[in-house]
Amino acid sequence: MPFVSFGILLSYGIGSALSWHFIAILGSFLPLILIPSLSSASDSPYWFMMQGDEKKGVQVGAGH
Question: Which of 38, 43, 53, 60 is most exposed, with the fewest beta carbons within 10 Å of its own?
Answer without folding.
Answer: 43
